[in-house]
Design a protein that fits this description.
The complex is a heterodimer of chains A (808) and B (286). Chain A is α+β, with helices and mostly antiparallel strands. Chain A is 29% helix and 22% strand. Chain A folds into three domains: 31-124 and 195-275, Aldehyde oxidase/xanthine dehydrogenase, a/b hammerhead (Aldehyde Oxidoreductase, domain 3); 290-454 and 646-805, 2-Layer Sandwich (Aldehyde Oxidoreductase, domain 4), CATH 3.30.365.10; 459-510 and 524-640, Aldehyde oxidase/xanthine dehydrogenase, molybdopterin binding domain (Aldehyde Oxidoreductase, domain 4, 2-Layer Sandwich), CATH 3.30.365.10. Chain A is built from 20 helices and 30 strands. In chain A, helix 9 packs parallel to helix 10 (365-383) and helix 18 (695-715) packs across helix 19 (772-784). Chain B has three domains: 5-49, Uridine Diphospho-n-acetylenolpyruvylglucosamine Reductase, domain 2; 56-169, Uridine Diphospho-n-acetylenolpyruvylglucosamine Reductase, domain 3, CATH 3.30.465.10; 175-285, Enolase-like, domain 1 (2-Layer Sandwich). In chain B, 36% of the residues lie in helices and 26% in strands. In chain B, helix 10 (222-228) runs antiparallel to helix 11 and helix 11 runs antiparallel to helix 12 (259-285). The chains are: A alpha+beta (808), B alpha+beta (286).
């Protein structure tokens, strides 16, 4: 590594101009010659047996090239539980179940044909809540598992639990106990760029799919499995990632619409693109899971936590995506947010006939942090300790090992609490605003900051290729989806190798050119890319310096000759023998210039600028040696695998990340007690990020997280009735806009310089969203004395709670 | 493939002739109609644009009488200094409606003809006792806005008839205000209220109150006006006025809010609109 020149600065993002100028190519912009348009026919029932599918009218429509159903197409079953057939044959389990698909010459014809498909059903009773699904004699959504073994319950056979310490002793030791039931809603990730895929086969049966994914290599694995069903075993699958308008977890699984584009392309021999518009995205793409949780914790008279118990039930919907495994991340705050000697965690994940759910930013963390941070405020009130103080009393410490076995390296939570307390004027404001319905609340967070091992490898590969002009081309398998990954990579490679950020080009993510990466999730992108890049940079520098002594002397001699041409009396002040004595260890590369350093006997660089050799010139000299003989080119790869553990999920134990990100948010609000409206007056965020890589991009990540957190806290909810989405669009699904964000946001970054991170950095992708809702609930409680435990905190719920308190 | 015809008449006569044909529908900004078309709630395939019709394009004053052409974009009305001074509740309603982009194309005539119970400009215009000028091939007629709406999405306009202008009389000594609540700032109103009062010698001599989104149509609250007129505009009077609101409205429960919630907040909005109007009226008198 060379010195830190670019890390910590805010040059514009490399892809920013193209996005603003309309040059970036999203899936909607990509068309290829001969491309057909796909459309999907979805179910008319939430739960029904399929009696008959008649596609004759659709097939007869001019412009239609293929109509596929489970009855004329090989079976492909997706999902990590193997519970989701791409085309449904026996029954439908949710309104968005795919019955048939059409490829046509234009999108409108494809849609019209899909509507012409006639389906006969035998309706079945549905279950639309966890209670209904778990009731005695409830209809089974899946009668058998993937191996055909009969199932007896709608409970998914996924066990996530945890028991540590002596819970009974913790209860006994508690002077105060707080307990509550909390619920969080189904919400939409609301990516600005909606979903889509374009599949095409070459004449050898090799597939290229351009897909809106965060997991190109796991997707390649899934699609390769599907190729076998099409009789294309041994053919290659190439996944290309276009510009993404947001991911937020929607790209963590492969989706039925992607397989449909593959099936239609395979059937027609033409490229086929399937796109979702906004309404389809709301109706047919998986949202965030809704949860109900029961949280109970206690503390002694000094405010020290003595035990904690968290039980969660998730309405999973009809099929299992990776989102079913939210409890894997719920374990983090449950076991490791503050120091708790005895912890119990239980989770139930339940099939219903509601829309099936998937991952979203935070992945279970905000769901349980709400209950933990709300009951912690209640403990503060019971014990008479200030809420900020009770958090300090129980604060995590650097170097501790938590009940889950998390090895906490650096931990800046104490400093975050101090800074947030100061910037929010906590001590002046807390408990002082009741007369004016103003209040302030705080919540902390823990999240993985050094990857999150949930798969057999949590690794990342990278290839750095130098061209003849000193430009570094980076092939990295992770995904830029708007978060600023490419900016972080360009800064880290610039400093890691010794070039300018503008000389670092991060190529499009493509499984054909990039080495394997598990996926861009768990806030791991910049952390993994940076560590892999630093390994590759070290190898590249070693090879460059190894070659340097062979050509450097000649290149400097040329510099001197040029100087003499300008000035006949020019004297470099040293003999050229000194240049010939340089060894590989005596070279340095900085901002694309190679020069000697250390005890070389040569004059200092500022007196002898002719000692600097442009990297491109050096590379050409090495590539095409003047003395003849074989030259070389420079390409280096590295694979970084963090030293972490795949946890034992039933025990909830294992050090799943190389570092942990801590932080907190304090929110000041005013509540209108007549209308229930909440106005945010100020928000302070303090986050232990390890090291700031690009201040502007980092702020963007946190602002964006806060905006989503605000939506989660106050506004957003996908409403369903009998399994049908009632508000599929922004008319009745409300996101905060600039008007709702028109309050001061102050960001504090604590740099703890974690040894595991590239330049000391930790992952920061998700944390911004995690503490916002609990801080809001705590602030509203401080303002008006009522606690809302059910998100979103709408004016209606506030007025209901005030009326209940006043006995109206 | 479906086809859509789109015609752009330039005069009122031409518009009335084109719009009178079968299946034709007038469109102005299109901010409601195009959304309805895309979601399949309107099957209209024959659109007659009013954007180039000269007679619908102006804002004209004659002394204290204001005539706003039906196809004037809301942004143009919102930017008019004299309208902001003489009809502040209308300016406030326009400022609350949609986004800058929406206000640049949406029109006042369109907001009224769409006849949403939640139309933001309607309560303000009701409080100003706006009259609506309607043209057909036979001539023009004028109706009070309080007679214009007949139900959600329906008005007294007959097929082929066109709302040409909104007519308003400024009351120089009045104070007026508009209040609304949505789930977020950019939302359809879950309830709205407008109020206009004139105060002489600490006595309310004239009061107009209207609400939106809490009945099948935007609604004048005459019973509330009667409570106010002739009384001192003080706390007890306002409390009486606020208490009278509940019996006059008939809100529904929908995705935006429950009827119960609308019943709780509408009286509050009425009271706040009245307070703001009174404060403006008495401020002017000083």
């Amino acid at each position: 590594m060379s010195s830190l020149r670019h890390v910590g600065t805010s040059p514009p993002r490399p892809e920013g101009g193209d996005k603003v100028g309309g040059r970036a190519r999203y899936i909607h912009d990509i068309t290829v010659p001969g491309m057909l348009h796909g459309a999907i026919r979805y179910s008319d029932h939430a739960h029904a047996r399929i009696r008959r599918i008649d596609t004759s009218r659709a097939e007869a429509l001019p412009g239609v090239r293929a109509v596929i159903t489970a009855f004329n197409t090989p079976e492909i079953i997706i999902g990590f539980m193997g519970d989701n057939p791409v085309l449904k044959k026996d029954k439908v389990r949710q309104f968005r179940d795919e019955l048939a698909a059409v490829a046509a010459e234009d999108a409108e014809t494809a849609r019209a044909a899909a509507e012409l498909i006639e389906v006969e059903y035998e309706p079945l009773p549905g279950v639309f809540s966890v209670e209904e699904a778990l009731a005695e004699g409830a209809p089974l959504i899946h009668e058998t598992d993937r191996r055909g073994k009969p199932l007896s319950s709608n409970r998914l056979p996924l066990i996530f639990g945890h028991d540590s310490g002596d819970l009974a002793a913790g209860e006994t030791a508690a002077a105060f106990v707080a307990e509550g039931s909390f619920s969080t809603p189904l919400i939409q990730q609301s990516c600005m760029g909606t979903a889509g895929a374009l599949a095409e086969f070459d004449s050898n049966g090799n597939l290229t799919i351009t897909a809106k994914t965060q997991i190109p290599f796991l997707a390649q694995r899934d699609f390769t499995k599907a190729m076998a069903s099409l009789g294309l075993k041994g053919c290659s699958v190439r996944v290309v990632v276009p510009t993404l308008g947001g991911g937020f977890g929607t790209g963590l699984d492969t989706h039925v619409y992607e397989y449909i584009s593959i099936l239609l392309a395979w059937r027609t021999g033409k490229p086929v693109r399937v796109l979702y518009n906004r309404e389809q995205e709301f109706a047919y793409l998986s949202p965030r899971q809704s949860t109900e949780s029961r949280v109970r914790q206690g503390c002694d008279k000094q405010g020290r936590l003595t035990f904690r118990s968290v039980e969660v039930v998730q309405d999973n919907g009809a099929y299992a995506s990776w989102g079913a495994t939210y409890p894997s991340v719920m374990l983090l705050p449950t076991t490791s947010l503050y120091r708790v000697p005895a912890v119990r965690f239980r989770s139930d994940i339940v099939y219903t006939n509601n829309t099936y759910c998937q991952a979203m930013r935070g992945y279970g963390n905000p769901e349980v942090t709400l209950g933990i941070e709300s009951t912690l405020d209640e403990l503060a009130e019971l014990s008479g300790i200030d809420p900020l103080e009770i958090r300090r009393i129980n604060c995590n410490q650097p170097g501790e090992v938590t009940p889950m076995g998390l090895k906490v390296g650096t931990c800046g939570l104490a400093e975050c609490l101090d800074r947030a307390g100061e910037r929010s004027a906590w001590s002046e404001k807390r408990g002082q605003g009741r007369a004016t319905s103003r209040g302030i609340g705080i919540s902390s967070l823990i999240h993985v900051g050094g990857g999150g091992k949930i798969y057999r490898s949590d690794g990342s590969g990278i290839i750095l290729k130098l061209d003849d002009y000193g430009v570094v081309h980076v092939n990295y398998g992770g995904v830029e989806m708007g978060q600023g990954l490419h900016s972080a990579i360009s800064l880290m490679v610039a400093d890691g190798l010794g070039v300018k950020p503008s000389s670092v080009i991060v190529n499009q993510t493509d499984t054909a050119t990039c080495p394997w990466d598990v996926g861009t999730h768990a806030s791991r992108g910049a952390f993994m890319a940076g560590n892999a890049a630093l390994k590759a940079c070290a190898k590249l520098r070693a090879r460059l310096f190894e070659w340097a002594p062979r050509v450097y002397g000649d290149l400097v001699a040329e510099n001197i000759k040029r100087a003499r041409r300008r000035d006949g009396d020019f004297d470099p002040g040293f003999t050229e023998e000194l240049l010939a004595k340089l060894t590989p260890g005596q070279f340095e590369l900085l901002d694309g210039e190679l020069f000697p350093h250390g005890e070389t006997g040569l004059p200092p660089l500022e007196d002898a600028p002719w000692l600097k050799v442009d990297l491109g010139r050096f590379l050409r000299a090495v590539h095409f040696p003047r003395a003849g003989g074989a030259g070389t080119v420079f390409t280096e790869e590295a694979f970084y695998e963090p030293a972490t553990e795949l946890p034992d999920w039933e025990k909830g134990y294992g050090n799943m990340s190389a570092s942990y990100t801590y932080g907190c948010q304090a929110i000041e609000v005013e509540v209108d007690q007549e209308t229930g409206q909440v106005t945010v007056l100020k928000l302070v965020s303090a986050l232990d990020v390890g090291r700031v890589l690009n201040p502007q991009t980092l702020k963007g990540q946190v602002y964006g997280g806060i905006a989503q957190g605000l939506g989660y806290a106050l506004y957003e909810e996908v409403k369903t009735e009998g399994g049908r989405v009632l508000n599929p669009g922004f008319t009745d699904y409300k996101l905060p806009t600039a008007s709702e964000m028109a309050f001061p946001i102050e960001l504090e970054f604590v740099e703890t310089d974690d040894a595991s991170g590239p330049f000391g950095a930790k992952g920061v992708g998700e944390p911004g969203l995690v503490p916002t809702a609990p801080a809001m609930a705590n602030a509203i409680q401080d303002a008006i004395g009522v606690r809302i435990r059910d998100l979103p905190i709408t004016p209606e719920k506030i007025l209901d709670a005030l009326a209940a308190r006043d006995g109206a | 493939m479906t086809t859509l015809t789109y015609q752009r008449p330039t005069s009122l006569r031409e518009a009335l002739e084109t719009g009178g044909s079968d299946g034709a529908r007038f469109v102005s900004g299109g901010t409601d109609l195009m959304v309805q078309r895309r979601s399949g709630r309107s099957g209209t395939e024959n659109l007659v644009s009013l954007r180039r019709v000269e007679e619908l394009a102006g804002i004209d004053w004659k002394n204290d009488q204001l005539r706003i052409g039906a196809a004037v974009p809301l942004a143009g009305i919102g930017a008019d200094q004299r309208i902001a001074r003489d009809f502040p509740a209308l300016a406030q309603a326009i400022a609350a409606l949609g986004s800058v982009q929406i206000r640049n194309v949406a029109t006042l005539g369109g907001n009224l003809c769409n006849a949403s119970p939640a139309a933001d400009t309607a309560p303000a215009l009701l409080a100003y006792e706006a009259r609506i000028e309607i043209a057909n091939t036979g001539g023009t007629r004028t109706v009070g806005l309080d007679e214009f709406f007949t139900g959600p999405g329906s008005t007294v306009l007959q097929p082929g008839e066109l709302l040409t202008a909104i007519l308003l009389d400024a009351r120089q000594s009045a104070g007026s205000a508009f209040m609304r609540l949505g789930r977020v700032r950019m939302d359809l109103a879950i309830a709205s209220a407008a109020a206009l009062v004139e105060i002489e010698d600490n006595r309310c001599t004239h009061a107009r109150v209207a609400v939106g989104a809490v009945a099948p149509t935007p609604l004048r609250l005459s019973a509330v006006e009667e409570i106010l007129e002739g009384k001192a505009p003080d706390g007890p009077t306002l409390a009486k006025a606020q208490a009278a609101v509940d019996a006059l409205i008939s809100p529904i429960s929908d995705l935006r809010a429950s009827a119960r919630h609308r019943r709780r907040i509408t009286p509050v909005l009425v009271a706040r609109a009245l307070e703001a109007a009174i404060s403006m009226a008495t401020g002017d008198a000083q």
